[in-house]
Design goal:
By secondary structure, the protein is of the alpha+beta class. The chain has five helices and five strands, in the order H-H-E-H-H-E-E-E-E-H. The strands form two sheets. The chain has a three-stranded antiparallel beta sheet. This is ArsR family transcriptional regulator.
């Protein structure tokens, strides 16, 4: 593996572990199986909105959550809508650096989930 690829993998590992290690991150990922605003996520898991926004930012930067677009809130403001990018993640600590195995969500699965929710 090249040195730049190794550095990138280490950076990705650090971002993922940091994001997952934060309080409420796992709950946000579980709640974000369908598209939701930060306010809806905050309400669903009963955490302060400022904390929710910080965790969302960490999860987006780690590639575990994605902004799917924007919609109007009940107050008429445009808000970002988030959904998790994976259904499972496995972390292996047996080597010098952690490695990850992910089960990514497919667009087809997202569409089917959206149809079932409506």
């Amino acid at each position: 593996m090249s040195q730049s690829r190794t550095k990138r993998a280490e950076s990705e590992s650090t971002a993922i572990l940091s994001a997952l290690g934060s309080k409420y991150s796992a709950e946000i990922l579980c709640a974000a199986g369908t598209p939701k605003s930060a306010q809806a996520l905050s309400d669903d898991i009963e955490i302060p909105i400022a904390t929710c926004y910080r965790r969302i930012q960490d999860l987006v930067e780690a590639g575990l959550l994605t902004c799917e677009g924007r919609q109007l809130s009940e107050e008429g403001r445009r808000t970002n809508i988030y959904r998790r990018t994976l259904d499972e993640i496995e972390i292996d600590f047996s080597d010098d650096q952690p490695s990850f195995s992910r089960k990514r969500r497919t667009e087809a699965k997202n569409r089917l989930r959206d149809q079932l929710e409506d």
